[in-house]
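Posting here for the record, re: thymidine-5'-diphosphate.
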Amino acid sequence: MTKSFELRVKHSGVVPVKFFRDLPDGNLFISEGRKNIDFDIKRVYFINNLANHKAVRGMHAHRKLEQVIFCINGSFTLHLDDGVVKQRIKLSDPALGIRVGPMLWHSMSSFSYDCVILVLASDYFDESDYIRDYDVFLQAAKAPEKH
Ligand code: TYD
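Prediction output follows.
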């Protein structure tokens, strides 16, 4: 079931979670802030009822936010773009999160009917952290990184 990915885009990577397989009584998956998740988790959100197979979600980047995205049921395709490199990943393994760090244009598509997406985020919702215009993103992605 576990398929690993090589992430070529910036500010990304695979985030494995600890899990206990106890079938047929269930699997238990664990994420802990500042342990397997690099940041303190301030917000959790999840997306379900993805009944429209043609839906496309996301289509934005964040200036500072760190997130880890999991497909905890079903499958979907995550599209990542750092302004230079573009990558497409099919997610179906709940034990593998994908880091979506700052300045990564991302979208999600090809949802299975039973898909459930879980996102762990480093900060509260803040619309001013979003870049929703792809041209603005491309310009900002060209700017030298601040450290
Ligand atoms: P958005 O992040 O654009 O969704 P997606 O990337 O999954 O397509 O958010 C959709 C709407 O929900 C938008 O109006 C902002 C709002 N929202 C919040 O109020 N709080 C949140 O934590 C998130 C993620 C979204």
